[in-house]
Amino acid sequence: MTKSTLTSQDLRTPVLRRSFRKPYPAAVRGEGVYVWDADGKRYLDFSGSAAVNFIGRGVREISDAMVEQARQLEFVHTSQFTTPVAEEFAQELLDFAGDHFRGGAVYFTCGGSESVETALKLARQYQVEIGETKRHRVLSRNQSYHGATLGALAVSGNRKRREIYLPMVREFEHIGMPYCYRCAFDCTESCYNCGQQYAAELERAIEAANGEAAGFIFEPMSGATLGAVTPPPGYLQAVAEICRRHGVLLIADEVMTGIGRTGRNFAVEHWQVAPDILITAKGISSGYAPLGAVIASKKVVDAIAAGSAAFLHGFTYNAHPISVAAGRAVLGRIQSLNLVHAADSDAEGTAGSALKKALEGLRDLEVVGDVRGLGMLWGVEFVADKKTKTPFPPEQGFSARVGQGCLRRGLLVYPMQGSVDGVAGDHLLIAPPAVITAEQISWAVEQLCAAVKEST
Ligand SMILES: Cc1ncc(COP(=O)(O)O)c(C=O)c1O
Fold first, then answer.
1. 219 lines ligand 1 (CB under 6 A)
2. DSSP string, 74-126
3. Above 60 in pLDDT, residue 241?
4. Which atom of ligand 1 is nearest to the CA of 281?
5. Cα 360 to ligand 1 centroid, rounded to whole Å
6. Taking residues 94-107, what's their average pLDDT?
């Protein structure tokens, strides 16, 4: 039976997979930027799975650190013990996050969604501790993604991922997201003006919340939903100032952009913004173990320590020793190989700059409307008409077709739809590990070009 004649019944297995519409190759091995399937086919991972892998696969020192931890102590519950590895890694992460987090503390989770849930509750508890008991709303933005759990979906703005679950979530205000390629305003001075207008929207939403706003959550750079859209100059600074003025906690979701991905330790550093709470996951363990972290500033931790003295929250597996050991070894590797610098797309001779240059070349293709991003996180947006920026009809599934073409050629990318209005608009997310070489980048971009041409 050929793949095209397989029905959804044929594609049923004991694993409840993401889709019954397509077969999934079975992955069996990884090394560097490559993954191999059970048939021996090799794939170059040009999207780091989903912007997860940053240090490359198959690194022995990471699995050794995990094995060593498992041999010593596989697990304890955080209601009974702490562990040396969690204490050490928390301090290293605080140092990595910079001066603003001195005296703060880290809460370890098993991934992005759990970290977002934790941050939402932390923001609420902070407000209660300081006597602002009315404050419980967490404002967020349209066209954002903060996770799959119901609390995280409530603050997300990814239409397709939310739609059917909306009756189950408690919704707060969503504001607009600056998207310079399709700017809704007058776009003068490199979108400085539109950035200020979007920031003003936040101020109006906070005022409309009538003293109930507890926090504002945002991705410094849009991740999968819009595809690596960077904020206009001055926007994040204005947002941070508005939050500070209104006593609203600034919560940066760096699940995708954190731990070096954009060529800085955390992406907020590009815009000199200091959040009250910083969330990260994905790259923190580079995929070697399920791990996320919520990095809380001193102000937030002090409020709880001096108040009720207990954070009313917990997961059985938070600060799991084996995951934390993996994260610690990954951060050590990032620092010893100077991978944050390698990811910097504005520094000469780096993987980041090679990636930027190669991807910029895609603009010559008839259907490529925009190429945007920073570091090792890029978006390529496809359009049916470059002049008018008209998207492809969503039912054509253009980005998915490009993704399939890439897969046939042994290249992994992350296709998404909905950048224009949540439904229409096709783009790819490109987020390879920072250990990728210039030769591997040019091979990957060649395959990508061929897949785009074939899909046109
Ligand atoms: C910005 C952002 N926040 C949260 C999440 C959710 O993370 P996870 O899938 O690890 O639960 C994601 C996942 O893609 C993300 O990109």
1. yes
2. ----TTT---HHHHHHHHHHHHHH-GGGTT-EEEEESSHHHHHHHHHHHHHHH
3. yes
4. 10
5. 27
6. 98
Ligand 1 atom nearest the C-alpha of 147 is: 6
- The dihedral sign for the CA sequence 294, 300, 302, 303: negative
| Gap from CA of 2 to ligand 1 centroid (Å) | 35
Phi, psi of 326 (to 5 degrees): -65, -45
How confident is residue 6, by pLDDT bands cut at 50, 70 and 90?
A: confident
* Cα-to-centroid distance, 315 and ligand 1 (Å): 18
What six digits make up the tokens of 39? 């048939």
> Does the CB atom of residue 255 touch ligand 1 within 6 A?
yes
Q: At what angle do helices 84-97 and 321-336 cross, to 10 degrees?
A: 40
| Residue 1 pLDDT exceeds 50 | no
pLDDT of 92 above 50: yes
Q: Residue 116 C-alpha to ligand 1 middle, in angstroms?
A: 8
In this predicted structure, what is the pLDDT of residue 19? 92
For ligand 1, atom 16, the nearest C-alpha belongs to 256
Residue 137 is predicted with a pLDDT of 98
CA distance 144 to 158: 6
User: How many angstroms does the Cα of residue 452 sit away from the middle of ligand 1?
Assistant: 27
CATH number, domain 3-54+343-455, options 3.40.50.1820, 3.90.1150.10, 3.40.50.300, 3.30.420.40: 3.90.1150.10
* pTM of the complete model: 0.97
The Cα angle at residue 179 between residues 174 and 182, in degrees rounded to 5: 120
Position in ligand 1 atom list of the atom nearest CA 253: 1
Statement: residue 15 has pLDDT above 70: yes
Spatial separation of the C-alpha atoms in residues 140 and 157, rounded to whole Å:
8
Give the domain ranges of the chain.
3-54+343-455, 62-336
Q: For residue 426, is pLDDT > 90?
A: yes
Q: What is the predicted pLDDT for the residue at 3?
A: 52
Q: What does the mean pLDDT of the chain come to?
A: 96
Q: Which CATH architecture has domain 62-336?
A: 3-Layer(aba) Sandwich (3.40)
Helices (H), 230-350: 235-246, 298-306, 321-336, 339-342
